[in-house]
């Protein structure tokens, strides 16, 4: 057994969902909406199961899906991509793993902003890389450009950016993206840009990819997720976009990791990406759930941080007059109140981060949200 895995715990998302199932709690922890997802996509998948080949599509993905992804980004983000620059993966996490396998060598340093999706650093370490953590400070979680400049050294190879940003639900400004891009060009870094929340913005701003910044196409990997776009997290269809030698290397990594992903679901996602009404309708529903949970929590005396994107709201426990740490609150809330949440401190290494912030997923039915608020209000 590799020592990294011998010493590793279970990811907080899996742990909280397992606890939630075991205890019958309302799960506002791991990010996922309930149910089967948009009906038109389900129907497209059924049609594909019945009418289409069940055999291997090309390793890089079904050509129709790769084309649909290009059309989607051209229309929504002004990115002009070729289908052979897109590789379909088994979820965004596989894309992240492929990119790190393909681009990070032993001794390479990789900048990881904290709090961070808990897959980044272990993957970097597994390939012999060294994660270098740069903290983002609540409540805005802005990029500390001075700290970042200090963290970049001669061994720095990669910057991992997650925009919009999970767990905080914030989004980078255009000026921040431009500055991150400038640093990548100046220091010859590649950027792994995890943009799985690109379709889940509530601040009225269009999503802008760092890949659109000058000099970034040849040094950037953009990661996307059908699970997040369509609220179908269990479908595990994601993708990565990169050009030239980097794109080719990603394809090599992916071919021996999963080779390809469930083909009927690829057909359905290809159709779904053209369904603007489905995407808009779903977004409207999420916006209402977001408002409902915020209002409920605030009425119950919780302080909720500003949120621009993602399926998550963050509660500031200290500002809400609660003396417990986020880890203690989360652990007790799932057992005693029957509500699962994610303590943000779990997304920092070695307890370096704040310990007063709790992440709650709002993409749930109204009655589950109301019930959860009532339980938390009683518990606090
Ligand atoms: N990104 C998801 C979340 O924030 C978790 C992903 C996973 O558990 N694989 O909830």
UniProtKB/TrEMBL annotation:
Please give an example of a GO cellular component term from this record.
cytoplasm
Does the keyword section mention Secreted?
A: no
Task: Provide this UniProt record's keywords sorted from A to Z.
Answer: Aminotransferase, Pyridoxal phosphate, Transferase
Under what name is this protein listed? Answer: aspartate transaminase
**Gene3D superfamilies registered for this protein in UniProt:** Aspartate Aminotransferase, domain 1, Type I PLP-dependent aspartate aminotransferase-like (Major domain)
InterPro entries in the cross-refs = Aminotransferase_I/II_large (IPR004839), Kynurenine-oxoglutarate_AT (IPR051326), PyrdxlP-dep_Trfase (IPR015424), PyrdxlP-dep_Trfase_major (IPR015421), PyrdxlP-dep_Trfase_small (IPR015422)
- What Enzyme Commission number(s) does the record list for this chain? 2.6.1.1
As one GO molecular function, the record gives: pyridoxal phosphate binding
Q: Which Pfam families match?
A: Aminotran_1_2
For this protein, what reaction is catalysed?
L-aspartate + 2-oxoglutarate = oxaloacetate + L-glutamate
Q: Which cofactor does it need?
A: pyridoxal 5'-phosphate
- Keyword Transferase assigned to the entry: answer is yes
The Aminotransferase class I/classII large domain covers which part of the protein?
26-376
